[in-house]
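Anyone able to model this chain together with cytidine-5'-monophosphate?
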Amino acid sequence: MDYTVMMPAAGSGQRMGAGYNKLFLQLNHKPIIIRTLLVFEEDPACTGIILAVKPDERNEIQSMLDQFGISKIQTIVDGGTERQYSVAACIEAHAENGIVLVHDAARPFLKKSVIANLVQKATKYGAAIAAVQAKDTMKIVTDGVVEETVDREKLWIVQTPQAFRYDVLKEASESANRAGFLGTDEAMLVERLGHPVHIVESTYENVKMTTQEDLAFGEIILNRQQEDIL
Ligand code: C5P
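re: yes, here you go
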């Protein structure tokens, strides 16, 4: 089943402390953003990618796309001050119905089987998100004091990709932006409209490259993946 990708890549990456966009950092000789794009470049079901970038990084990103032969970019849009606005710009640039996957450019380790399951569930239900079960005990804390221990069985750590029927995502995004509602992921905007969001079990390797420790973890994952191929 075919799908289009919307990829926000217009963040500042301050928590990485690199002094420039963390997506440009190299993981085994390829920038993080390129590693993420290659997953979709190599998936025949992905028909196109809409990328949101910072206007002053457009040229640098374009030369990376050329250098690494990324051919599926449909449109490059200007990102916004919040991730939600960067995704909204992607939504605006897209006009076709069908399944869209919103995926952080900072998550290069997603598995193809997770993509396929997301597309299948989003086709059936309208909205499906990648997530893993919480491994640790989780507590709600107020002013440094535990209020409650949450039932771990019910807790899922949410990642991207998040897959939607285009009309569902567009309505949710436009409604949230009209109301000035800022969510931390797209699913939250869809939940806000009362639309059910289904879970697809993902892998713990699908981490977002946020801090320096994640980069070290990323290199271990890559080396392991290469050993699996050999
Ligand atoms: O900052 P964080 O790691 O949560 O960002 C997740 C993704 O959203 C990254 O790929 C980042 O480039 C993107 N982003 C964006 N526009 C923003 C903030 C983040 O496209 N204003």
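The helical segments are 32-41, 58-67, 83-92, 112-125, 166-179, 186-192, 212-229.
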